[in-house]
């Protein structure tokens, strides 16, 4: 027994700052645009090696390992089995699936010394399907869900924001193998729950939204977005109902292509208002919220649509500048208008309906955005929708404009910015069919397996968490993924033996209680020490000083609190565990 214990891996929690590598900087690096990237560099979590390539320093790697641990636990709990696949993949597999041709320049291709072709895996559907077709022979083995936590490479067009959109990054990718659609749906639902658990445990504010399932009709696809103003994606959701979708999907819905959505708007009086400036003044909206006027040829009469934008370019497009368009608009017309108006892709549907794109923080707070009208002195506000309305959008828009639309339920549409941290997707038989992955069913007949795929951006989560939790002093880590859970800051330990003793005792006590604690035993002035620890964003701080010791007290500061409090020495543990 003793021997066994000696050789067991044990998790050592706690660290002395003097034996760790803390490398902080005051200056904001000028090549970093967003808070997370700046703070990760300043606090010494990451270092840049090249475009989209980052090294994780000890402090940053602690965060990554904690994110991995949460994900791993929830995957295991949901019955998924961990595997590890090579990151270098032979081209033959990609030829089989057809992706060797289809995948664009994001795929990094290379040759070995025998001139054989490979790629550095951007994802692992081919490899896992190859494993499945060799390993799984009978329906009795199903369902199975394999996952790995592994390094991916995507030669992104625009790597940016540090590890947020890197070229090399760590992903958790999982793949389920199922017999029949019902079983696939079950695995998908299980992963949905597991993903919610993961992001709940990490204390992140997020939303699961419907996403495009691409060419696979009817299959489910859901993205998980951490909400943050700096997010590259726009997500659309209802304030009351359950509806939530990413922008691409929401636009598809607004075009009525699925026949399941509609928008109803109220008209508001806007006499004499024809331009952005006039409208902004009348509604008391800051013009910098970028209302953009588009005159779009609607079904029968022109529709003025205002598109909210975040790039601070106010382009007003007048009717006479627009190309001649058919009624209803075709996609080609929409594209021509987009070009003329220099407006966001997706903001004009084939029926001339505009979906407002809100790209800045203030604009996102406006629940009631203004959208357009085709009557003099009227604009539309308060866009609503109803998923069940079977009529094509075209009619509803006309009705609304004519003022007799039937009221639609489902709350008010809101648009916020999001960072995609996870994506679950029903692949169906796309890979199993082309790569021949089937099992024998109860009757001994071969059946192609169905697949689901489930991704989480491990390293992106670190950046997303910072985007959502930071202040002017630095990062504010949620407990589950903080590099350290608590820090002990002794004041003047060099001179005071009593402080040294008390701090050592507290360090041991916290370690024994299982707290991942940092003991800042560096010979630093209190101000510098506090600044470092606030920058690093450790959730709990305990200060030990001669003065406090005299009263048997400790100064405690929650990183999210405005003030520190003096607490009895005996109450320390109750603050954390
Ligand atoms: P994006 O839309 O941001 O390009 P994606 O849809 O291409 O992401 P998926 O193929 O769904 O990404 O991969 C699963 C997860 O991997 C994503 O949800 C995201 O969290 C993460 N991820 C994707 N690309 C990157 C990247 N370049 N850097 C860091 N993480 C990434
Ligand atoms: Mg991508
Ligand atoms: Mg995406
Ligand atoms: Mg995705």
TrEMBL record:
GO terms assigned for molecular function:
aminoacyl-tRNA deacylase activity; ATP binding; proline-tRNA ligase activity
Q: Which InterPro entries match?
A: aa-tRNA-synt_IIb, aa-tRNA-synth_II, aa-tRNA-synth_II/BPL/LPL, Anticodon-bd, Anticodon-bd_dom_sf, Pro-tRNA-ligase_IIa, Pro-tRNA-synth_IIa_bac-type, Pro-tRNA-Synthase_IIa_type1
Give a single Pfam family match. Answer: HGTP_anticodon
| One GO CC term, this protein | cytosol
* SUPFAM superfamilies for the chain: Class II aaRS ABD-related (SSF52954), Class II aaRS and biotin synthetases (SSF55681), YbaK/ProRS associated domain (SSF55826)
Q: Which residues form the Aminoacyl-transfer RNA synthetases class-II family profile domain?
A: 47-478
Q: Give the top-level enzyme category.
A: ligase
At the top level of its lineage, which domain of life is listed? Bacteria
Q: Which compartments does it reside in?
A: Cytoplasm
Record's catalysed reaction(s): tRNA(Pro) + L-proline + ATP = L-prolyl-tRNA(Pro) + AMP + diphosphate
Give a GO biological-process term.
Answer: prolyl-tRNA aminoacylation
Entry keyword set? Aminoacyl-tRNA synthetase, ATP-binding, Cytoplasm, Ligase, Nucleotide-binding, Protein biosynthesis
- EC assignment: the record states 6.1.1.15
Q: Where is the signal peptide?
A: none
Which HAMAP family does its entry note? Pro_tRNA_synth_type1 (MF_01569)
Q: What is known of its domains?
A: Consists of three domains: the N-terminal catalytic domain, the editing domain and the C-terminal anticodon-binding domain.
Homology family? Belongs to the class-II aminoacyl-tRNA synthetase family. ProS type 1 subfamily.
The protein's job, in short, is: Catalyzes the attachment of proline to tRNA(Pro) in a two-step reaction: proline is first activated by ATP to form Pro-AMP and then transferred to the acceptor end of tRNA(Pro). As ProRS can inadvertently accommodate and process non-cognate amino acids such as alanine and cysteine, to avoid such errors it has two additional distinct editing activities against alanine. One activity is designated as 'pretransfer' editing and involves the tRNA(Pro)-independent hydrolysis of activated Ala-AMP.
Describe, as the record does, how this protein assembles with itself and its partners.
Answer: Homodimer.
Q: What is this protein called?
A: Proline--tRNA ligase
The source organism is Granulosicoccus antarcticus IMCC3135
